[in-house]
Amino acid sequence: MNPGGTAHVEGKAGATTHLPAPGTRISIDELALFGGTPAFTEVLHVGRPNIGDRDRLMQRFNQMLDTRWLSNGGPFVREFEQRICDLVGVKHCVAMCNATVALEIVTRALGLKGEVIVPSFTFVATAHALQWQRITPVFCDIDPETHTIDPEKVERMITPRTTGILGVHLWGRGCDVEALASIARRRDLRLLFDAAHAFGCTHNGRMIGSFGDAEVFSFHATKFLNSFEGGAVVTNDDELARKIRLMKNFGFHAYDDVGYIGINGKMTEASAAMGLTSMESMDEFIAVNLVNYHAYREGLAGIPGVSLVGYNPHEKSSYQYVITEIDEARTGLSRDQLLTVLHAEQVLARRYFYPGVHRMEPYRSYFPNADLLLPETRRLCQRVLSLPTGTAVDPGIIARVCDVVRFAVAHGPEIAARAAETAPAEG
Ligand code: T4K
User: Fold this and answer.
1) pLDDT (tens digit, 9 = 90+) per residue, 240-265?
2) 8 A C-beta contact, residue 177 and residue 211
3) Whose CA is nearest to atom 33 of ligand 1?
4) How far, in Å, CA of 79 to CA of 56, rounded?
């Protein structure tokens, strides 16, 4: 999967390890949380950007500056869109400034109104894109195995006001597309996918991007493929694509001719240059992520109560997300206590997507009882922990991260008792 030929990936950001060496801690006093030396001298982030071939990027920037074509459907944007169409196997790609605006535009172009069913276990932008247009996001529970929206529960959330379903391919793992498509067909609903995590991934052997009425990718800095900020709508629907193209450019048909209400959702040439350059290193990014994923699998193996979310080896994946579930009953310390331990060691693990969108404002006030219908979401929000991967880390660093987790779990009740008065870290 290397549409652009030559490739090169920039190396680690230089997160240097420090004492104590793996496996040498004896007492919990040696944890940074309790006054010991942090395991890392530099912070390890979840979501450190993948950087491809810097020289190639600079060449493109120079070309862009030489031609003085910086935005408004320039050559890099058009090339980026075409390469995405070719890779995904879809007729239309409309690149935009970010995925949130892309979601807003496609939702509007599809004429969605009333209520749209979405998972609560997602990044807040999925729901905001609806609410921003006064469409009510109706939160549906997830399947605890897949972490994606549960089609059986979707059926129960449909009301006369429902106009669509918006699934999220979380962690790059496809939703139950077939079941959702069948519901949408039977109940005459539009079907959209937030594929922000799923660029370059497949579902049942088919590239994500061509399912439903349309799908939306994110190319944010933290994503597998980044264009600094960016997003795209992909669809096989000619009329929908035409509308979206107009809407993302103020509704302009031609010079001085506006035929539609529109907004500014355009991608810049600088972003497209970064996107194209990132695309050329996709294979290398995946290879790095895969090595990292296996390093975590090895490093976390056998730690009671810590499970690593898996990827189907028969599907293509970017392996961009290293997601663990922490079962407090077996670790002896809560996910939040483990998070505090890791943060003190400079491992900035994240609780994506705690506390669940339905427990954030304005949704918490709008739907104060939503929790009752979302037991699996609530449970997962207490368990999930995302760990650093990408080109900024390597198996040596990962071994040390896993060593901290193993040590913390081995001393779970003791740490929990000592940390009981410590407030949970922000995530
Ligand atoms: N749907 C889903 C399912 C999504 O996950 C997202 C975005 C969207 C829709 C909307 O897509 P966009 O409109 O953004 O295209 C981050 C990202 O900002 C967000 O794009 C992403 N999801 C979400 C999962 O993560 P935060 O608030 O957690 O970002 P922040 O600033 O804490 O950054 C995360 C880590 O990455 C930091 O520890 C530092 C590191 N980082 C970040 C940036 C931006 C860097 O090292 N360099 C950087 O340039 O939301």
Assistant:
1) 999 999 999 999 998 999 988 999 99
2) yes
3) 47
4) 15
